[in-house]
Amino acid sequence: MSTAVQESEDVIIPNGVEYTERKIGELNDYIIPQEPGNSNEENMIKNVYESEHDLDDEREDLKTETIESKLKKLEIDGDTEKRIRLKNYENEKDMPEIMRLITKDLSEPYSIYTYRYFIHNWPNLCFLAFDEDKCIGAIVCKLDWHKKIVHRGYIAMLAVDEDYRRRKIGSRLVIRAIQAMVLKGADEIVLETEVTNKSALNLYENLGFVRDKRLFRYYLNGIDALRLKLWIR
Ligand SMILES: CC(C)(COP(=O)(O)OP(=O)(O)OC[C@H]1O[C@@H](n2cnc3c(N)ncnc32)[C@H](O)[C@@H]1OP(=O)(O)O)[C@@H](O)C(=O)NCCC(=O)NCCS
C-alpha cells in the first residue's frame, strides 16, 4: 500500500497530515483602525494587526479533514486541465510574469521590493501555473513566527489570468501553497482580501478559511479588508 498521495503533478502529501476546518463564522463587528501612514503594502509585510480582537475562542471545530481528501476533491478531469501545470518559482526570470499577473488586478500596485521581499525570502512558497509555456497564474506566500509562538503562513498575492478563471486554477495554487506551508510546520494560514472581492472570498471559504477580522479602510482606495484564517492545528 502506498504511504503517500500523489497529486496529478509532482506533489506528495504524507498520509496523516491533517488540518482543522473551522465553522465559517459570522462576519465580526470588530473594526481595526489603519495605522497612520501605513499602507496596505507596509502592513502586509509587517503583519501588524494582532490578537486583541481575535475570535478564536468563540469558534468551534466543524470537522477535521485530511489534506489528501481536500486535494482529491480538486482533482480535475480532462486533458485540457491536465495540461495546466503548477511549478515552483525558479529564479528571477519568473519575476516579470508574476508581477504582470498580480499587477493587472491590484487596486494598489506593489513595488519590486515587495515582490522581492516575499519571493527571495520564501522562494519555496511561490508557485506559478502554466498552460504550456504561458504563465497564467501565480501565488506568493511567506511563513514566519507570529508573537514567537504561532508559526503563521501568509498568502500575500494570488492571481489567475482572466481567460483561465473558474477552472480551479486559483484553488489549485492555494492548495499547493497550503500544502507547502503545512509541510514546513505552519500552525495557521492567514490572508487579507477586499470585503468586496466575492471570487476570492468564495474560493478561500470553500477551502475552509473563516472570516477572522475586518480591517477598516485597509486599502488605499478606502475599501475594508477581511482577514481570513485557516487553522491547521
Ligand atoms: C480570485 C481568483 C484568483 C480566483 O481564481 P479562479 O482560478 O477563477 O478560481 P477557481 O476556479 O479555483 O474558483 C474556486 C471557487 O471560487 C469561487 N469563485 C471564483 N471566481 C468567482 C466569481 N467570479 N464569482 C463568484 N465566485 C467565484 C467559486 O466558489 C469557485 O468555485 P466554483 O467554480 O466551483 O463555483 C481570480 O478571480 C483572480 O485572479 N482575481 C483577481 C485577483 C484577486 O482577486 N486575487 C485574490 C486576492 S486575495
Task: Tell me the layout of helices and strands.
Elements (H helix, E strand, L loop, with lengths): L3 E3 L5 E3 L3 E5 L8 E2 L7 H7 L14 E6 H7 L5 H4 L1 E5 L6 H11 L6 H10 L4 E6 L2 E13 L3 E11 L8 H15 L4 E7 L3 H9 L3 E6 L9 E7 L2
Parallel strand pairs: 4-11, 9-10
Antiparallel strand pairs: 1-2, 3-5, 6-7, 7-8, 8-9, 10-12, 11-12
The structure holds coenzyme A.
Terminal residue distance: 27 Å
What oligomerization state is this entry in?
single chain
CATH architecture of the domain at 84-231, please?
3-Layer(aba) Sandwich
What is the strand tally? 12
What value does the Rg take, in angstroms? 17 Å
Summarize the structure.
By secondary structure, the protein is α+β, with helices and mostly antiparallel strands. The chain contains seven helices and twelve strands. Residues 105, 158-160, 165-171, 191, 193, 197-200, 202-203, 206 line the site of coenzyme A (COA).
